[in-house]
Specification:
This protein is mainly α. It folds into 2 domains: 72 residues, MazG-like (Helix Hairpins); 32 residues, no CATH class. It is built from 5 helices and no strands. Helix 2 packs antiparallel against helix 3. It starts with a helix and ends in a 10-residue tail after the last helix.
């Protein structure tokens, strides 16, 4: 993942776009790109996989840039969140159900 992060950050710096990338702007961009990803599924389960992958890549790119801007390690925060979620959603209570942890 470090190679991907370096490439995304370099791409942005080479174009002097970092000046536009405040944490708030990056969070907005994640939301906007997520909406574009969702749009791929707007009218049913038939979707263009290539378009979905392009939009997913945009979401991931902005997430990488936000993590970089906040000086956090994506792997660390994802692993920390998995630990938190494993406590909220123990296998014996959550397996096979989509209920929220407060309903288990």
């Amino acid at each position: 993942m470090e190679d991907v992060k370096r490439a995304v950050v370099k791409f942005t710096k080479d174009r002097d776009w970092d000046q536009f990338h405040s944490p708030a702007n990056l969070a907005k961009s994640i939301s906007i790109e997520s909406a574009e990803l969702l749009e791929c599924f707007q009218w049913g389960d038939n979707y263009d996989k290539e378009k979905v992958c392009e939009e997913l890549a945009d979401v991931v790119n902005y997430a990488i840039l936000l993590a970089d801007k906040l000086d956090v390690n994506l792997e660390d925060i994802v692993m920390d969140k998995l630990k938190t979620n494993s406590k909220k959603y123990p296998v014996e209570k959550s397996k096979g159900t989509s209920k929220k942890y407060t309903e288990l």
